């Protein structure tokens, strides 16, 4: 056994040298195959680079289209190109006609750019317009679809989730609203995650789910040194905490 251990390194070295010799002979005998393989690797790398460049270009085009349609909508509603929010036209029929036209244009962006930030932003605008038109179910559906299509780690997805939560709150479905706020808070990179947690706690309280509300309250107290709950919410949760 001892002799075998002594010779093991030498045997391994011989095996490696033999393998090296065979590889060298094989490469010498098959130069065209090697060059073809290398070419394929380079072609694949170039293709990946082209795809990435195409995706970046497509994303830029989608964002530009989204910005253009949004500006045109605000101007059509009587605002200026620099306004962030569309004003309300004096004539209700004019407002309805404009909203009906532009919600379809936003929906086109949603359909054409699935899974992109442009989809989410267009879905948010379409959702607000649907709500103004009184189509609350469509308002929620379009933004829920954006949530489903976006990458799980996208901060823009968190914004869409918050919109879903607001629509659930408007429908007095506080449990669904709490879950949507909480889901937004779990997305890395979302800058308002603590605000989302606070809203989740508020919605759990509104739903009569004391334990869930207090669990989030305790989390906020332990994880957020620089975040302060709004006074009314802090007071409400303190009352829940003190109740038997």
How would the blueprint of this fold be written?
Layout: H1 2-29, H2 31-76, H3 92-112, H4 117-132, H5 136-149, H6 155-170, H7 174-185, H8 193-206, H9 210-223, H10 231-242
Helix pairs in contact: 2-3, 2-4, 3-4, 4-5, 4-6, 5-6, 6-7, 7-8, 8-9
What does this protein structure show overall?
By secondary structure, the chain is mostly helical. It is built from ten helices and no strands. α4 packs antiparallel against α5. The longest helix has 46 residues. The N terminus is likely disordered.
Short description:
The protein is an all-alpha fold and about 240 residues long.
Find the count of extended strands (DSSP E, 2+ residues). 0
Instruction: Name the poorly predicted regions.
Output: 1-24, 30-56
The secondary-structure element order is HHHHHHHHHH
- The percent range for helix content is over 70%
Distance between the termini: 75 Å
Global mean pLDDT: 79
Briefly note the structural class of the backbone: mainly alpha
Beta content:
under 5%
Main beta sheet strand tally, sense and closure: none
Question: What general outline do the C-alpha atoms trace?
Answer: elongated
């Amino acid at each position: 056994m001892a002799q075998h251990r002594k010779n093991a390194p030498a045997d391994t070295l011989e095996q490696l040298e033999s393998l090296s010799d065979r590889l060298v002979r094989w490469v010498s005998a098959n130069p065209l195959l090697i060059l073809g393989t290398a070419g394929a690797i380079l072609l694949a790398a170039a293709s990946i680079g082209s795809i990435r460049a195409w995706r970046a270009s497509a994303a830029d085009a989608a964002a530009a289209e989204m910005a253009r349609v949004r500006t045109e909508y605000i101007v059509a509603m009587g605002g200026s190109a620099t306004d962030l929010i569309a004003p309300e036209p004096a004539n209700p029929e004019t407002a309805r006609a404009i909203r009906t036209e532009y919600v379809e244009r936003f929906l086109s962006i949603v359909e054409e750019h699935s899974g992109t930030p442009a989809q989410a932003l267009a879905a948010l605008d379409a959702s607000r317009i649907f709500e103004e038109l009184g189509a609350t179910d469509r308002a929620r559906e379009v933004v829920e679809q954006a949530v489903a299509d976006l990458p799980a780690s996208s901060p823009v997805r968190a914004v869409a989730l918050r919109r879903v939560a607001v629509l659930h709150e408007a429908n007095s479905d506080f449990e669904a609203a709490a879950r949507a706020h909480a889901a937004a808070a779990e997305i890395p990179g979302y800058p308002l995650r603590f605000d989302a947690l606070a809203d989740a706690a508020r919605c759990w309280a509104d739903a009569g789910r004391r334990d869930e509300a207090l669990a989030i309250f305790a989390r906020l107290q332990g994880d957020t040194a620089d975040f302060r709950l709004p006074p009314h919410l802090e007071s409400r949760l303190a009352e829940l905490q003190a109740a038997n």
